[in-house]
Design a protein that fits this description.
The complex is a heterotrimer of chains A (about 210), B (about 200) and C (about 290). With about 200 residues, chain B is of the alpha/beta class. Chain B contains eight helices and seven strands, in the order βαββαβαβαβαβααα. Chain C has twelve helices and six strands. Classes of the chains: A mainly alpha (about 210), B alpha/beta (about 200), C alpha/beta (about 290).
């Protein structure tokens, strides 16, 4: 029985049925189908949340293996498991609004993620300062456009030269927006084609199958 | 010579970009197996990355096996760094700084951490090959990388390198749909200028 | 041996750490000692404010905080200024998070808004309800958009939302507006499953790098207004007459941009004076 559910054809059948249950009600509104579609999406949302449980289990298994075999960096795996346990237990014991969990979130997690995000500004600046060279006519045009937009983004410039808003907005609303639109169209088409490949069984890596696996 | 290669396939789940990233990873793994080059594949970055990691490990293992060097495959060189983006980033940066790879190939769907990684790879003198899949970070990646694949160049590269008939057919179908989209846009442009919004109404939700 | 290239070589090959140091100094200085330079107000921000001005007392707004705490640092001026407007107008808020770090945001945000919540007697449970981290993925957004109460029964503290103003919400179309603060998490999912399905007006406060992508949505009418990053938030603070963290940081913003322009100019002088003659190659993807 379990081998049937693990088989490629059974999983693709589930995929197709799920797809149709969400796809058809979008175009043909019918009460019972809408209800079923809504229930399926709720089930999917809840099931997805349980992947976190699987992730925690996988991490404990993997880190346990590293620690047992004393592989390179095994001490950091003890540190990782200890922190995971502390965060999980403090969340369950104290709740998310008080105590150790809230302190760890506010004093440790959020400042650390803010630092990584903040460093981006320095990296973007150094990359931009390095890359914007008028080494060819194309690069010179790009430099000119970048210069106008960069000047506009500095708030002081708009206060003294209001006309720069028109130039910068023109550049972003024509060239910038057309690129974004082109990109959105391409990505959407690609996603549709990928979906069709998945539904027809041509792309099965996401189900955990390799080539030729049944 | 003698330096490792770092190749990542993205942080996302099984989406359009990750499939392309995995194809490119498969090719890079094959080259590394054939040339006895150490391949490091940092994994993680989101909660969906747990699922993709298994496919990536199989892919790299199969590439080494196909090259006749299964003993060279080392799963420890595919570390799972974190399921959180901003915890994955410093782990990846640490790998770049410690290992000082000769080349970093960063494909698939990378988000804001892409800039961190590309710039750090540049700082350790790696040849940086990236793929920009979001308009938000494409411009910055183009500045920081040595070579960049913009948008659909990445799935096209993945299809070309993998020689998978389904992927190559997908690229062809996408091109056909793009021509249809261009035709519809031109028709709409003409119709609007003639005072009709029929095309607009046909394609609107 | 003479240093061939001289000053031009130095200008072309300056260490990037000088950029970090300069940026650090020009940003930190004005933050410690604000100068109060003028700023221009963009048409985009004026339009954003005009959209918010259409709200009436009692309207229920879906305030979706699709940001990590790090993203909040950039969106803070816009978040605070927009919520000040909501409080002053007496709008009811249903607040949802798109990231688990969102749970750290309400204490921080409402601490900044304490004066307004006290003055206008704006209380949790009566005027705003936080339903918590409900957007882990697209399926969750779609489920909530279709049937609100089937998917959300309690607020983030576990208290029932029955008997509150959220009884009026059956699906995504019952909200008067969606006010989204995004680093790019569930925004596209909200547009797909709520805006396209129910035509609910949506205003977005986005980080700077995501603005080009959202401009296309704005032009297509999918979102009705866009507030761009810290600068948009600062402009909104000025328009509502409530200076805050945005306006305080505009001097640093200006100096940071100008310092980058100066480095670009220096690099280009060095490029023409040395790099082009020496045949050295710049390591960048821009040809």
């Amino acid at each position: 029985m379990s081998s049937f559910f693990k088989s490629r054809s059974a999983q693709i059948t589930v995929l197709i049925v799920s797809f149709l249950l969400v796809f058809i009600p979008y175009f043909i509104p019918w009460g019972p189908l809408d209800w079923l579609s809504g229930k399926l999406m709720t089930i999917a949302a809840v099931t997805n949340a349980f992947t976190i449980v699987i992730a925690v289990y996988s991490q404990f298994r993997r880190s346990g293996r590293f620690i047992n075999e004393r592989r390179k960096g095994w001490v950091y795996h003890i540190y990782l498991l200890a922190l995971m346990a502390i965060m999980t237990l403090s969340g369950f014991i104290f709740g998310q609004h008080a105590g150790a969990y809230e302190w760890l979130l506010l004093a440790v997690v959020t400042p650390l993620s803010s630092v990584i995000y903040g460093i981006l500004a320095f990296y973007m600046s150094s990359a931009g300062a390095r890359a914007f060279r008028a080494r060819s006519p194309h690069a010179a045009l790009l430099l000119l456009a970048g210069f106008v937009v960069l000047m506009y983004q500095a708030p002081l410039t708009g206060a003294f030269f209001p006309g720069i808003e028109g130039a910068a907005v023109y550049l972003t609303d024509t060239f910038g927006m057309s690129v974004s639109r082109m990109f959105s169209i391409s990505v959407s088409i690609g996603a549709i084609v990928l979906g069709v490949r998945m539904l027809t069984g041509k792309e099965v890596a996401f189900l955990g199958f390799g080539e030729g696996d049944e | 010579m003698g330096k490792p290669v770092v190749c990542s396939y993205g942080c996302g789940g099984f989406d359009y970009w990750t499939v392309a990233g995995l194809s490119i990873l498969g090719y890079v793994a094959k080259i590394c197996a054939e040339t006895d080059t150490r391949l490091i594949v940092p994994t993680g970055g989101s909660s969906d990355s747990y699922i993709v990691r298994e496919a990536a490990v199989d892919l790299v293992r199969n590439a080494y096996t196909a090259a006749g060097r299964p003993e060279a495959f080392n799963e420890d060189d595919m570390p799972f760094l974190s399921g959180e983006q901003y915890a994955y980033t410093p782990g990846y940066v640490g790998i770049l700084v410690r290992e000082r790879p000769g080349t970093m190939v960063m494909t698939g769907s990378h988000w804001s951490e892409a800039m961190n990684l590309a710039e750090m790879a540049n700082a350790v003198d790696s040849i940086t090959i990236t793929a920009g899949c979001y308009t938000s970070n494409m411009a910055a990646l183009a500045c920081a990388s040595d070579y960049i694949m913009l948008g659909e160049e990445q799935p096209a590269a993945g299809a070309y390198l993998s020689r998978d008939p389904a992927q190559m057919a997908s690229i062809r179908v996408q091109d056909i749909y793009k021509f249809i989209a261009i035709g519809t846009i031109l028709l709409g442009l003409i119709a609007v200028n003639l005072g009709s919004d029929i095309i607009n109404r046909l394609i609107s939700t | 041996m003479a240093d061939e290239g001289g000053i031009y070589k130095r200008m072309a090959t300056y260490d990037k750490r000088w950029v970090y140091v300069a940026l650090f100094i020009v940003v930190l200085g004005p933050l410690i000692n604000p100068i109060g330079m003028p700023i221009g107000i963009s048409a985009q921000t004026r339009h954003y404010k005009a959209e918010l001005d259409t709200l009436q007392e009692g309207d229920i707004v879906f305030s979706t905080w699709n940001m990590e705490f790090s993203g909040y640092m950039e969106l803070k001026p816009g978040v605070l200024a927009t919520h000040k407007m909501f409080i002053e107008k007496g709008v009811k808020l249903c607040i949802a998070f798109g990231h688990f770090e969102g749970v750290a945001l309400p204490p921080e945000i409402f601490k900044q808004l304490k004066k307004w919540t006290d003055d206008y007697d704006y209380t949790e449970g009566e005027d705003y309800i936080i339903i918590g981290y409900v957007f882990p993925n697209e399926a969750a957004v779609a489920a909530l958009a279709g049937d609100f109460h089937a998917n959300v029964r309690v607020d983030w503290r576990g208290e029932s939302i029955e008997g509150t103003f959220l009884d009026e919400i059956q699906n995504g179309g019952d909200f008067a507006m969606i006010s989204d603060y995004t680093t790019g998490l569930a925004t596209t999912n909200i547009i797909r499953h709520i805006v396209l399905e129910y035509d609910t007006p949506m205003v977005v406060n986005s980080i700077g790098v995501s603005v080009p992508g959202h401009l296309a949505n704005l032009d297509a009418g999918l979102i009705t207004a866009l507030l761009a990053s810290t600068r948009g938030g600062a402009e909104l603070e000025f328009l509502i007459g409530s200076p805050g963290p945005g306006l305080k940081s505009m001097d640093a913003f200006t100096f940071g941009h100008y310092s980058l322009i100066i480095f670009i100019i220096i690099g280009n002088i060095g490029h023409y004076g040395w790099t082009r003659r020496s045949g050295a190659r710049d390591r960048t993807g821009i040809r």
